[in-house]
Amino acid sequence: MPDRAVALLGREEAVTEIIGAGSGPNGLTDLDDPAGLIAADVGGHLRAAALAGAQARAVAAAVDEGALDPLDGIAPRAVVVVCGAGPAAAAAGFVEALTAGRFDVPLVRSTELPPWVGALDVVVVCGFDAGDLVLARAIAVASRRGATVVVAVPLEGPVAEAAAGRTVDLSPRLRVPERFGFIGVAAALLAVLGRIAGIDRSAAPGEGFLFALADTLDDEALRGAPDRDVESNPAKRLAARMAGRRIALTADTAAGLAVAEHAASQALTLGGQVVAAVGLADVELAVPELAAAPRGGALSGSDALFHDPFLDGPAAQTPLRVLVVTIEERAPMVQARLRALPDVEPLPVDEGARRAPDTAGPRADAQELLALAVRFDLASVYRRLTGEA
Questions:
Q1: Structure confidence at residue 133 (pLDDT)
Q2: What is the model's pLDDT at position 207?
Q3: Cα dist from 153 to 112, 124, 163, 276, whole Å
Q4: Which distant-in-sequence residues (6+ apart) come within 8 Å of 27 by Cβ?
Q5: How far, in whole angstroms, is CA 214 from its chain's centroid?
């Protein structure tokens, strides 16, 4: 890694020092027991989740060093994003939704290279598996057809062989477990689209949107560190809100829904909790049924065995909590739309969170929504460590 990138990534030491290296015996612990949380995190999940800002800063450092200079002056017919499943696809969906109607060039997302791609197009191949033959084939074929190819996959194995010096290298400089790679892929795609749109070309080194995004994500990770108690820790508060409830995640925008779907995946794979992610319109349609559903807690195993719905009436269910992924200025409107539900909570970035000045439009939305993605990552890890799922 170039010295400049190493120096920039050094800013993450404060985050990872607070989060800890993830060593110690397994065990269940309390949310307000920092030592116990760090000791239980034998997989290093807290540290990996806290590196979201470092991932964005690594992409920004690569751009500062000229990684995307070959895109200057290009007016492509289309930008084609080729990615596999998992966090890479989720991040591509987030960026696609965020930029819809705001980007002058058609943006196409696909699991394989479309047959019509040619010399007039920009192809971005993103993922985590350097041995993925589908991604390697997409790189090789797109390059052979004369397309400008940006590779945001580790340059190893078949992918490195397919790239062979003919592509724009935006491969990850900071490697994290795939399940925590959502932010890195989103940052890479935002960098490519911003460069094609001519944004930030004149920004001084160390400045620009991606550096501001990295600062926002660092702030979210620091506020979600295990040494902060539940009252002052947004991630721990979120983990506590998800305990003892059925959870439905929704959002008032397509980009927010992409974050909600990522959060639902993290809740299942990290926290072991089944969470539904549905559009706000679907939740509104279900309001009459949800509002009328019996409440009071699920029946125990023995009670459920002897429950007679004809004599006892409908069985009570575990209470449902609807969490809405939105931004601060829209939160009151969303809450008003769902006021008939007994337990609805918008999740904008908290007051006091760090925001970049003079950021508006989709970039402001990106900062808030990606900060919420980091919060959900940390909350899912806390659910895993406390065994409350």
A1: 96
A2: 81
A3: 15, 10, 10, 30
A4: 36, 39, 40
A5: 13
The number of beta carbons lying within 10 Å of the beta carbon of residue 28 is: 10
100-120: burial string, b at 16+ Cβ within 10 Å, e else: eeebebebbbeeebeeebeee
CATH of domain 45-214: 3.40.50.10490
Please answer whether residues 60 and 210 qualify as being in contact, where contact means their C-beta atoms are separated by less than 8 angstroms.
yes
Distances (CA, A) of 278 to 235, 255, 258, 362: 22, 13, 10, 22
H or E element in which residue 361 lies: helix 361-386
With beta carbons less than 8 A apart as the criterion, state whether 318 and 245 touch.
yes
Tens digit of each residue's pLDDT (9 = 90 or more) over 45-84: 999 999 999 999 999 999 999 999 999 989 999 999 999 8
Q: Pick the more confident residue, 298 or 230.
A: 230
Kindly tell me the burial class for residue 254, based on how many C-beta atoms sit within 10 Å of its own C-beta (0-12, 13-18, 19 or more).
Answer: middle
Whole-number Å distance between alpha carbons of 383 and 263: 13
Among residues 184, 125, 190, the alpha carbon closest in space to that of 374 is found at 184
Read off the pLDDT of residues 315-357 as tens digits, 9 standing for 90 and up.
Answer: 556 788 899 998 888 888 888 888 888 788 888 776 556 665 5
How many angstroms separate the CA atoms of 183 and 171, rounded?
14
Residues in the chain: 389
Residue 24 or residue 381, greater confidence: 381
- The CATH architecture one would assign to domain 229-350+366-386 is 3-Layer(aba) Sandwich (3.40)
Neighbouring-strand partners of residue 126: 83, 152
Strand partners, 344: 322
HSE of 360 in the Cβ direction (CA atoms, 13 Å)? 1
Domain parsing of the chain, residue ranges? 45-214, 229-350+366-386
What's the average model confidence in pLDDT over 123-148?
96
d(CA 238, CA 266): 13
Same fold, 45-214 and 229-350+366-386: yes
Could you tell me the pLDDT band of residue 4, with boundaries at 50, 70 and 90? very low
